[in-house]
Amino acid sequence: MLTCLLLQKIGSSNYGASAYSFVPHTSAVTGVGQQAGARFRWQRSSSLLENGDNATGRYSCRNGDSMTMKKRLTRQQQIPVGSDGEMPQNLKRKVVAKRNLRGDVIPKKARQKGGTLPPKLRPQGQSRQVSSSNNPSNLKILGGSARGRHLSSPDVFLRPMMGKVREAVYSTFTSFGLYDEGVYTRHLDIFSGSGSVGLESLSRGAGECTFVDLSRNCCDTIETNVVKCDFGEGEGGNGSKTRVICADALEVLRNPVSVGIPSTQVYDIITLCPPYEEITYADLLHSVSNSPLLTEDTIVLVEYPTELGCLPHVLSRDDGGKLIGVRNRRYGRTVIAMYIVNPTGRLEMANSRPEEFISL
What is the pTM of this model? Predict the structure, then answer.
């Protein structure tokens, strides 16, 4: 008996698994295979036949035997979704995320003649020495009007969004129609670091972007990068509205007026790329879900590590509204989840995908 691959059918509320197996029987000879020391030549002799829930296909071999592929359905299983009002326990703890060792951020004076010290993990957000590499990730804008512009990095240890992840994220945002001609997109980039995520959005056509970071050094670097990319309303800028706020992320989400954001301001995109080990995701998700900065069809992006486990498909708001999961993709040890707030159907491509929130 040969066993074939397991296929899954994903639906809006459940999914089923279909297993295929090969059943030998007598038939004409064609093909090459190996069984009990003999050589066989296998060839599919008929097309796949669909008969209701069953499908068969015949394969034949040189010794007169053949095999028929049969499909059988397994039981249906419910897709797990977030429970209303209760945050999953895995999000209530501090996460210890594995990160790659970065040898390129070791201060030069720590290097020994004839070799180097072993690579070290640097605590995110802490100041790094001036003598270390100023831009270890070689950050640059990947698309749009500022494509190819190199960005400065602040003098703190960062874990910026990888280039391949940023490219995938903005491909998805573009497919949602957020950068279509005539669309005015407002972006809130929290835990900005060097500002690469928000600047990428401006480059691709966002009308305005607000950057938020707790580090003064990061905020100064963002302002430098805004000028480098010719964004902003000042001389030489392209007219995009930019605002840089040096404040705590949760305070901005819960009480934006206290940090200078107008009471009527809402955003079409909110990106949250926090230092994994320095926040509690349950607090972050509760704060963003109930923030007055959200409006209908706002897209919320959350970056998190695989060690945290899978985020829920639905996040509940205190006012009865919902954040519905539309994407949950893994890139190595990094996972990107996207939610849409109280969807109206305006963003046609931002459809719910509960199957992506089952596991990583």
Answer: 0.68
